[in-house]
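hey so i finaly got around to running the thing on Histidinol-phosphate aminotransferase from Campylobacter ureolyticus ACS-301-V-Sch3b. pasting the sequence first so u can double check i didnt mess up the copy paste, my clipboard has been acting weird all day
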Amino acid sequence: MIFNAHLSEIKSYEPGKPIELIIREYGIKQNDIIKLASNENPQGTSKLVQKVIKQNAKFANLYPDDSMFELKEALSKKYNVTSNNLIIGSGSDQVIEFLIHAKANQNSAILTAKITFSMYEIYAKHVGAKVYKTPSDTHNLDEFLEVFKKHQNEISIIFLCVPNNPLGECLDADEVYKFIEKIDKNTLIVIDGAYNEFAKFKDIKKFIDPKKISEYENVIYLGTFSKLYGLGGMRVGYGVANENIISNLSKLRAPFNITTLSLKAATAVLEDESYIKKTLKNNFKEMKRYEKFAKKHNIKFITSYTNFITFFIKNSSEICDNLLKKGIILRNLKSYELDAIRITIGLRAQNKRVLKELERLL
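ok and heres what it spat out for the 3d tokens, dont ask me to read them lol
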């Protein structure tokens, strides 16, 4: 069977290995497995969310409220925007897909950093669009501007991952706002803020304000409930932008794209302030252990404003494979052509065991 030619250029996204796979392949008990590969919240699911899911499980036979009124109201209150400034997706990935289909095609291109979230490129290739990347691994806005000016007639979308996944670096908010003013208003700028809450906690200068983003003509902010809010398995993301952008994206959204329980869970977790604070405090307290370890062993790393840290280590693939046999799942970044390992910041006991095994291998 013949498929569209541009599919041959697409490499499938490689997620972190699931726990179930390690159980099957190595016969390791589930309680002995540590998964720090996909930047999930190690605190587990909020108790408030668990309660809400139990209360609403009996309604799983019904289609969800397609207006998503409760969740939009909660996000509107959080960011001081209106429901018309919001679109909800099955993870922020789905909103990225909407954006690509709304603005990119085989006659246009997108612009990203050299090393960043791979789904930007994958979705762009779905529609046959070109992908331009800056020379540096990390975000350099001077390079973004230079590449944009060179290919301005082609580039329809610019993706800024702030903070950046999988490296962890983060631009200052003022830098981003100044950059936006230099870009043609018909070019869409996407601010992927999947880890923005972590950056805000560490350094307020890094915080991108979704309210401010909604006031621009050509910019959208993306958020997710998969990281800080511990709902990776519920698949809820969102976009914040002006009404014109949102109304056009909404034409691409299928009905009932978010489940009843996912909507209830996302709305509830926004109210669980103790869970959120606990997550943020643990994250950056434990991150210092990894930074100390890296300095002790002369391992290169980039200061991270996220819930993960990336170590640049020789033979990273071999190290990851050896750790898998011990029931420790980290993210090997070979798919990015990097000799590096991305490690989600876990709980104290998890991190202690990971660092002990890493030291043994090193």
